[in-house]
Amino acid sequence: MPEHRPRTETVPRARLRRPGDALPKAPIGTVPILWHHADAGAPAPRVDPVSVLDEMARLGYEGTQLDGGLPDGAELRTTLAARGLRLAEVYAALPASPAGLGADALADGRERLRLLLEGDGDVLCVALDGSPDRDARAGRADTAGTPRLTDAAWLELTGLLHTLADDTIAAGRRLAFHPHAGTYVETPAEVERLVAATDPARVGICLDVGHYIVGGGDPLAALEWLGERVTHVHLKDVDPDVQARLSEGALAGLGEAVDQRIFTELGAGSLDLLGVLRVLAGRGYEGWLMVEQDSSWSPPSEAAAIGRRVLGHALAAVGAEVSASQL
Fold first, then answer.
1. How far apart are CA 288 and CA 235, in angstroms?
2. DSSP output for 161-175
3. Which of 17, 41, 168, 260 is geometrically suited to a Cys-Cys bond with 175, CB 3.0 to 4.6 A?
4. For residue 280, how many C-alpha atoms fall within 13 Å in the half-sphere facing its CB?
5. What is the pairing mode between strands 28-30 and 63-65?
């Protein structure tokens, strides 16, 4: 593994925030998975995670999800600060089966919280880990025969989320649960059950608009319905042709769909990005906007640049609409 040396100067970066943009208090980050995706049967790309941070800063992002291979503690804080970046989130994928959570689920969540705190990060983003049975039903998980959590498993999940949320709040941070395709909380009905069963003062929702589309939902309707419950947002666009093949069962599951680039650059898929931003602007959202793309046909930095600039254009357009409405 390459040695990580803190930089002594800040990486030159794009200045993409403009007066009048919508959501001026919502920081914009991205997720490093784009640089690390390996198609099935292909070797994983060898990418230095610190070099990925350099690219994020250069492209105008303000924060990142924790990347494997980065230093932790004070060295991580120094590495991020030298690039003008913040640790937006640490992702915690908890093992689960229809019968309940894995024995190490709470310990795994607490370890991820430790990394968040040591890196002076903002959000513990919690999801259930993917499983082969639900991966195979991704995009059509609302149909008969789909494996689902038992009532006992739901009780266990909500209890663990409350416990982990209490730990997170006590440490001065926020927890947001991320519904995710290929897991046991994917469909709008499953999201509704989780929201109804958890305390809104303790468990926020990370709405990943791309995964919500794949799960059969409408992100705009979800944002209106969930309101202030959405405390963290992943912005991810969806290729409708690949989504249709996944929903029809023509693909083996979410993994194959990702290899087929179901998640595409912002502006290139079916996501109503302007609509999403209008709803968020209407409620004065101040949480993170995390641009995420699991894989790309283009070089990763090119795709990440497209995402940031499309988002910048959309924020300017919605800001102009808001200004015009106030005349």
1. 10
2. HHHHHHHHHHTT-EE
3. 168
4. 31
5. parallel
Helices and strands (H and E) in the chain: how many:
13, 12
Tell me which residue of 66, 31, 69, 64 sits closest to 48, measured CA to CA. 69
User: Is residue 92, in this structure, part of any structural domain at all?
Assistant: yes
Pairing between β-strand 263-264 and β-strand 237-238 as defined by DSSP bridges: antiparallel
Alpha helix ranges (H) inside 29-140: 33-36, 49-59, 73-81, 105-118, 132-135
- Report strand pairing: 100-101 vs 96-97: antiparallel
- Residues 6 or more apart whose CB falls under 8 angstroms from that of 144 comprise none
Phi, psi of 249 (to 5 degrees): 80, 15
3-state secondary structure of 125: strand
| Residue 225 covered by a domain | yes
CATH, residue 90: 3.20.20.150
Instruction: With respect to residue 18, please indicate whether it lies within any of the assigned structural domains.
Output: no
Range of the domain at 315: 28-325
DSSP secondary structure letter of residue 298 = S
Instruction: Look at the pTM and tell me if it is higher than 0.85.
Output: yes
| Residue 73 vs residues 35, 37, 76, 80, 299: alpha-carbon distances, Å | 23, 26, 5, 11, 31
Integer Cα distance of 311 and 207 in angstroms: 17
**The total number of structural domains that make up the chain:** 1
Q: Radius of gyration of the chain from Cα atoms? A: 19
Note down pLDDT in tens along the chain; length 327 residues. Answer: 334 444 434 556 667 889 999 999 999 999 999 999 999 989 989 999 999 999 999 999 999 999 999 999 999 999 999 999 999 999 999 999 999 999 999 999 999 999 999 999 999 999 999 999 999 999 999 999 999 999 999 999 999 999 999 999 999 999 999 999 999 999 999 999 999 999 999 999 999 999 999 999 999 999 999 999 999 999 999 999 999 999 999 999 999 999 999 999 999 999 999 999 999 999 999 999 999 999 999 999 999 999 999 999 999 999 999 999 988
CB 178 within 8 A of CB 126: yes
20 within a domain of the structure (yes/no): no
